[in-house]
Write a structure and sequence with these properties.
2 copies of one chain form a homodimer. Chain A has 6 helices and 10 strands. Chain A has 2 domains: 7-160, Alpha-Beta Complex (Nucleoside Triphosphate Pyrophosphohydrolase); 172-227, Arc Repressor Mutant, subunit A (Orthogonal Bundle). Chain A is an alpha+beta fold. In chain A, the strands form 2 sheets. In chain A, strands 1, 2, 3, 4, 5, 6 and 7 form a 7-stranded mixed sheet that branches. Chain A has a 3-stranded antiparallel sheet with strand order 8-10-9. The A-B interface holds A 8-11, 45, 47-53, 72, 74-75, 77-79, 105, 107, 109, 159, 162-163 and B 8-11, 45, 47-53, 72, 74-75, 77-79, 105, 107, 109, 159, 162-163.
Chain lengths: 236, 236
């Protein structure tokens, strides 16, 4: 779907894709072509397309994944969020014929996604030079209000962790409790007590134990778990 | 601000205004003129207006209150949420010249507000016959996806109660702990243990005790509290 073609005017979506790797919480960012800014993966909403469908489409294009855990978290609609000058330059640089359409203030619906880092094939869009992961604590210069979007997504994720066992979506299919605990600790930005965490997670009865991880010392090998459902808890 | 005049096309806002009265959680609804439906207070967003400002403006018009506790909670963007036929009829009945503008699918940003029931002067808009309170457990027939909006607002409110002491906004300035507990119980739909509730609320150190409520039997009179801040916690 191209700019302006049968899209809802002045509405966009932006996606904060969270991944977990090397003890870091990461987000997927695009380097905007010929500009100094980075941007969240985003796009527009077709007249015949649901907001959720638009977000899924954008994320499939950027990650190669068709079924990912996705939640709408906030809609950004400040008066000054347009940065019309930047939008003009973006249109010029990329010789967009639909420049007029783009040079308006947009309201943007924010989604966050939790993905298995190892499965993502990061793919830039037609206005970007690159698409890559960045540590959430070392973000490059972001366009418009995208930094605020990431912060709001993280705030929401921290709250929602208490209500839904969604952190599994950041891990491969099989994982140890210690790996899961590291994900929680990284998102929450604090250490958790191992025995309490293990008791709490297991009491939810959402994990099944499948095997011991081979570590060379069998008596110390941790158990490996997976989420009980055959599907990840997209709909939980 | 009238339909279509310098508004962002295909974007609306809808507000779930919660009030508390006679042990009931209530929402403010409009009876749509010449139709069988009720609707949430809503409106459109000016080109030069922030989403939050639009919500404040709509709520001031419907409630007479200028400073109320307001939170954006979800943006509704299903493909079929338009009910174009109903919108056509609404335009016809009200002889709206901007009918064409109205006959498109809209994306609606949902806000919920928590208000002191006793201060609200419920005022219908130009397309409605009445504006009144309804028990959330006995709602009339609602237009479009407004029933879903109320449910989503309630779900969010229940989660947010754990994080922010926002329930005070539903009470008059001065209240007893028992009154506050009834608000929590009504929203959460379950009974809470009195001593635990009192300990938890007081441990937050956000209330100040101002006097005893006169009940005729002084030794049993409960203490009256108010929120410590001079302003209600709109920004907490």
């Amino acid at each position: 779907m191209k700019f302006g073609e049968n899209c809802i005017p002045q509405v966009s979506i932006d996606c904060v894709v969270f991944g977990f790797h090397a003890h870091q919480l990461k987000v997927l960012l695009l380097r905007v072509r010929s500009m100094e800014y980075y941007a969240l993966p985003g796009g527009f909403v077709g007249q015949e397309e649901a907001l959720d469908e638009a977000a899924q489409r954008v994320l499939q294009e950027r990650t190669g994944l068709t079924e990912l855990y996705l939640e709408q978290f906030y809609t950004f609609g400040q008066r000054n969020r347009g940065e019309i000058e930047m939008q003009q330059k973006l249109a010029e640089v990329n010789q967009l014929s639909s420049a007029e359409w783009l040079q308006k203030r947009f309201i943007s619906v924010g989604y966050y996604a939790l993905v298995d880092f190892s499965l993502v094939k990061a793919t830039p869009d037609e206005l970007s030079d690159s698409c890559d992961w960045y540590d959430i604590n070392q973000l490059p210069l972001l366009m418009m209000d995208h930094h605020q979007m990431i912060q709001k997504a993280l705030d929401t994720l921290r709250i929602m962790l208490e209500y839904k066992p969604i952190a599994f979506n950041l891990l491969p299919e099989n994982f140890t409790i210690a790996e899961l605990q590291r994900v929680y600790e990284t998102i929450l930005g604090k250490e958790l007590i191992r025995t309490n965490f293990q008791r709490k997670i297991l009491s939810l009865e959402i994990l099944e134990r499948i095997e011991k991880k081979y570590t060379g010392g069998a008596h110390k090998a941790p158990y490996v778990y997976r989420f009980k459902s055959t599907k990840k808890p997209h709909e939980s």
